[in-house]
Input
Amino acid sequence: MHEALQLADLIAASGRLVVLTGAGCSTESGIPDYRSPGGVWSRHKPIYYSAFAGSAEIRRFYWARSFRGWQRFSAARPNGAHVALADLERTGRVAQLITQNVDDLHQEAGSRQVVQLHGRNRLVVCLGCGTRTPRQEMQDRLAELNAEWIARAAWEGLAADEADFAPDGDAELAESLVGDFRVPGCQLCGGVLKPDVVFFGEVVPPERVSESMAAVDRADTLLVVGSSLTVWSGFRFVKRASDRGIAIAIVNIGPTRGDDLCHLKIEERCGLVLSAAVEALGISAVDGSDVAKPETRNQKPETIQIDLKVESQEPGMGGGSRPGETTPH
Ligand SMILES: NC(=O)c1ccc[n+]([C@@H]2O[C@H](COP(=O)([O-])OP(=O)(O)OC[C@H]3O[C@@H](n4cnc5c(N)ncnc54)[C@H](O)[C@@H]3O)[C@@H](O)[C@H]2O)c1
Ligand SMILES: [Zn+2]
Output
């Protein structure tokens, strides 16, 4: 695949590569994104933080759907894109990975140098005392409290994939079906429990942003994988990379807000492209050593031709959040 070889050359030529990933990186693991063609954005609007924090009714609705979607979300496993990025880090080619995803699949694949900008869906945080507990524990408590509701719930008869499964791990559930679903409070202080992810209308913790921005400021190449960059929370790093004049590559099916700023755009499935690039680089997934693979690449990589003189432009797409305003869940 010619494009994968171009990407391999870019990675080989990079001294300090930073990677930014989005929901598109996990679609091949079975977790949908918002903005794929025909994606769920039009059908499933995420709940805003203010609504969640301010209304017990909305929390009941949120948790009932989340309860329904958890089994499928928690069963997702890393795909070729996650594995390839972990291989690149392990062999010293990725300095920092910044992800907008909340699914932990990068860590599960073996990436260690990860900033999870929008938090972790596998944890629950108490809005009263700040205590974090495993999401599975919440699932067990919800199941216990709602045994009767579960027994008579209309969706019980549905197969998991018949229910509409939403990007942030919950499933579509008509408001009328939520009924008397009960939501437990924090076991320490009785406070409101929320998944430990940054909701729309919530601010990304500044230390996560500054750590990521510092990595971009030290980088000589930024690779974006599976993000439409619609949300400012991720796009800001592409803007900064562009302002610094470093190389930018994007692997994404469909348009992104960074298309005018990048030097290499690959419109292909990221699992496919990244695995092929890793293979072209001769990285062995088995023992971690770099192995020359004559059948794929036995010559010195061509010098990659990238025109770095791209003028920085204001984003061409509307609809993204403004700084500090964010974001997605
Ligand atoms: N897995 C998760 O944790 C998850 C899932 C959905 C949404 N989110 C949250 O929602 C927000 C949405 O923003 P976003 O930019 O990350 O996602 P997005 O939905 O805006 O964009 C995803 C992009 O990936 C593309 N894509 C889908 N599958 C692909 C594939 N296999 N290969 C290449 N490209 C592919 C889509 O066409 C789309 O352009 C994020 O901030 C994130 O926090 C997280
Ligand atoms: Zn508490």
